[in-house]
Amino acid sequence: MTKIQHGQEQKVPGMKRKKGKFKKAKTVCILLALSVLLLAGGWFYVDSLAYKLCRVEAGVMVEPSDFLKKPDETAFFTEDSQPFNITEPGEYNIEVKSGWFTHRCTLIIEDTIAPVGEPVPVKMEIGQTCGAGAFVTNIADATAVGVEYVVEPDFTKAGGQTVQVVLTDRGSNMSVVEAELFLSPVVEDLTVEAGQGAPRPESFLISGNEVSFVTDVEALDYARVGDYEVSLKVDGAVYTSNLHVADTMPPMAEVQDVEGFALVPRKAEEFIVEIEDATEVTANFLKEPDLAYIGTQEVIISFIDGGGNETQKTARLTLFEDTEAPVISGAKDLQYFIGDTISYKKNISVTDNCPDGLVLEVNTAAVNLNEEGVYPVTYMAKDLAGNVTSVTVNLTVTPRMYSIEEVDALADAVLAEIITPEMTELEKVQAIYNWNIRHIAYINHSEKGDWVRAAYEGLAERKGDCYVYACTAKELLTRAGISNLDITKIPTRREHYWNLVDIGEGWYHFDTTPRTDHPRIFMWTDEELMEYSAMHYNSHNYDRSLYPEVN
Description:
By secondary structure, the protein is of the alpha+beta class. It is built from 6 helices and 32 strands.
């Protein structure tokens, strides 16, 4: 009985071991299934984060985050990505790294938009050729564009023709641009040497039989570098060309040596003997000479013509020291009347062995022209080298004495110009009136009480107020033999003076003083003057008891 149990005891444990192995295998299977599910779910999750295929128009910038469904500014293309060019259509394999994951995507760059361009008119000489690209500009497309003729133009036919060129991009999109071609039977540009005169019309001709100028080419300036548009008629049609006047020959120049005093300014022109060139030539020192250097030095002069051609010539400049002082001539004692004008340099001359830069100064610091006395006046002459000469004279200032003889002489000189023997008395009076108003300038003040002085101011200085006008008229009328009297306004805040004139017909008013309303008070009756006076604040009221009766 003990062995069965044992046996039994031996069998029972065996049965228990078989049940444990089954349970263990079942667990492993479950774990494996769960792992597969987790892996599949993870793969589907990662795969859902990016776009597998991205299609973009050529020229549009592509960023790594463009392939992600959620923006990620840190995403980048991996080194394993196929390089791509946004201007090159095609299909590219791209890898985008975002966080822990790498996404494999496909990028398709396509070009679906046709290129555009602007037409360019082309003008050429007949026989010249050009490619299709010459007829279009500002071509716009995301990809490279080829340009070809639809039909190649005829470059041997003069005149205008329409040209079509086709633009084709990398996406095989096409557009046609239409432009104009003009072929001229004359050269586009012709250059002639300055100074050789006008060219012949045949010089412009490339193809054709009869040619003549429309433009007057003889009137153009061939002594100056310039560009001109010239029109020509070829076989009945008008064409244009550009005529260029050029100067390609350097100027010819001859120079000479120069001697003189130091410090004197020098110009290149002093060294020039002769210049020969078809255009205008400017001459300048290549380096300014040393004007303070005593002795001989070389100077280089640059001659440049209108075409920019240059010739250089060398000359010698010899400079001497100036030790001789200037000489002042004509300086003598002066007489001045108070109230007159004075010219200190009148009759004064200065000479020097080197007249360049010679200066004459007058020192009048001690002079008082308003006070009687004797004052020193010093003349000082200084030359460019600094040599100085001075001369002092005396200026005597005295009150001005006006003599009737001097005034009569001035009046007679005026009357000799305006009076002729055949004149009537009225014509003489009229001539005197006209001279006064035309030759005396009005100023608002003069010294009163000395009619001779006032007449002098009117005749010699030719300026003054109403007192000067009246006294000047008095002197001229008297010297002409015309009866006249002085007349004065009744004293008020403002004074006024004029004349009475009698030419044998009685007394009349005669007033040459200019007024703002420009009356001509010539031989006026008393009634006429009083009417005017009443309208102008009693401008001519006077005491009739002091004067003879006026007409």
